[in-house]
Amino acid sequence: MKKIKKCLFPAAGYGTRFLPATKAIPKEMLPVLTKPLLQYGVEEAMSAGISTMAIVTGRGKRAIEDHFDRSYELENQINGTPKESLMSGIRDIIKRCTFSYTRQHEMKGLGHAILTGETLIGDEAFGVILADDLCDNNKEDSVLTQMIQVYEKYKCSIIAVQEIDINDTNKYGVIAGKIEETDIIRVEDMVEKPEPKDAPSNLAIIGRYILTPDIFDIIRKTQAGKGGEIQITDALLTQAKQGRVIAYKFNGKRFDCGSVDGFVQATNYFYKKN
Ligand code: G1P
Predict the structure, then answer these.
(1) Closest C-alpha to ligand 1, atom 11
(2) Whole-structure pTM over 0.90, yes or no?
(3) What is the pLDDT, as a whole number, of residue 177?
(4) Neighbouring C-beta atoms of residue 19, cutoff 10 Å
(5) Tell me: the pLDDT tens digits for 257-266?
(6) Is residue 1 part of a domain?
(7) Range of 262's domain?
(8) Ligand 1 centroid, distance to 262 Cα (angstroms)
């Protein structure tokens, strides 16, 4: 079985919950302490042995490409000064990883964003990280690393899930299924952002996926769903019905940095930790 070598980062969304901060700055570039959200995601992918980063961007997102590139003027300014150490992490990322980009021209949902990334991924299984779900595992295996281990056993698409307050189901994709073993559930149902009364459980999808490449054809055939958007949740339910999809209750902390509350919690957490 081929190793997972590529990670896709859908990063074309407008980040309207963070206006006006996101008017000219991509939401993926908002920093928790001194690091942009997307850099945390890239570091998580690297910790899972991935060095090919595929990013789906959109208009007004050029700061992302500049961040993952050399900046000669800046380097020239700070070389040999104490501030140089602040650049060592991002310099290492640039040296060790390859970044490729494609633009999503229209915002037609997460499923559509992932399909837009097909050109960068090709015919192999790949990771997906939604950078606004910020995860931390201290020194233990990262969420993506854990998921790759599950993928190596089950050889199908894997989605990360977490128990949430039942009143919050309308913010997430929600799954239900059959327990295979501890923390491993075979998906039988999946609904995008159901109202609590319609939710099949309180197990919510978190922004980490391992997807097998047949998902692209399935997305192509998936009709617009919740919010008139092409939902990865709907495509994954089709994949689960045709074959198998596994939901994995991961170990680790996760912050919803797409919300102001989650962002502040993440900031406090990393501030204390550092
Ligand atoms: C997306 C997915 C949803 C998932 C969530 C995780 O929603 O559509 O199924 O639970 O990410 O963060 P979004 O938050 O982009 O609206």
Answers:
(1) 207
(2) yes
(3) 97
(4) 10
(5) 999 999 999 9
(6) no
(7) 6-273
(8) 14
C-alpha of residue 68 to centroid of ligand 1, in Å: 25
**Residue 60: both structure tokens together:** 């007004």
- End-to-end Cα spacing for the chain: 38
> What is the Å distance from ligand 1's center to 130 Cα?
8
Ligand 1 atom nearest to 258, measured from its CA: 14
For residue 269, the domain's CATH number is: 3.90.550.10
The residue type at 161: V
Q: Largest alpha-carbon pair distance within the chain?
A: 60
Distance CA 87, CA 74 (A): 10
In-domain check, residue 217: yes
pLDDT in tens, 131-154: 999 999 988 899 999 999 999 999
* Cα(2)–Cα(5) distance, integer angstroms: 8
Integer Cα distance of 153 and 149 in angstroms = 7
Token couple for 117: 């990334």
pLDDT band at 63 (very low <50, low <70, confident <90, very high): very high
Q: Calculate how far, in angstroms, residue 23's C-alpha sits from the geometric centre of ligand 1.
A: 21
CB of 192 shorter than 6 A to ligand 1: yes
For 171-210, write each residue's pLDDT tens digit: 999 999 999 999 999 999 999 999 999 999 999 999 999 9
Q: How many CA atoms lie within 13 Å of 221's alpha carbon, on the beta-carbon side? A: 8
Residue appearing with tokens 């962002």: 263
Spatial neighbors of 40 by CB under 8 A, at least 6 apart, are: 32, 131, 134
